[in-house]
Design brief:
mainly beta; three-stranded antiparallel β-sheet; 2 helices
Length: about 130
């Protein structure tokens, strides 16, 4: 599966508090998180679902969190979704078809992102904290 997104949130411990950050593509391009799961996703029988694949954070991103979603390059998405993909080829896509940490940037956001009731574009606004 693929989970499209504009970015994701991570919380960095800062003394006694946790500061949330919004992480996104430097050019504000859409992100495609690699996921695995059990179809069909459109039926409610308690056995379908998916998980987002994660990767180690490197090159500065570890300052925020040690793991991150595996974000695929746009040209790797179609093959990732193929029903015929082998485990070996999936591993190659993970290795060669993922965006490097250098394309991401982040900024601090208000703690209200931690409450599902808070919605809207203002929750990703840079607070300048942190």
């Amino acid at each position: 599966a693929i989970v499209p997104a504009s970015g994701w949130f991570e919380w960095k411990k800062s003394g006694a508090r946790k500061q949330p950050y919004f992480i996104y593509h430097r050019n504000r391009e859409p992100l495609f998180f690699a996921a695995i799961g059990k179809p069909p996703f459109d039926r409610e029988h308690g056995q379908e679902g998916f998980v987002i694949v994660t990767a180690a954070s490197n090159q500065g991103m570890v300052d925020i969190h040690d793991r991150r979603p595996l974000v695929l390059k746009a040209d790797a998405v179609r093959e990732w979704l193929s029903h015929d993909i082998s485990p070996a080829r999936a591993a190659e896509i993970v290795r060669d078809g993922a965006l490097p940490e250098s394309v991401f940037t982040w900024h601090p956001v208000a703690a209200k992102v931690g409450n599902v009731h808070n919605q809207g574009p203002d929750i990703i606004r840079n607070t300048g904290d942190g």
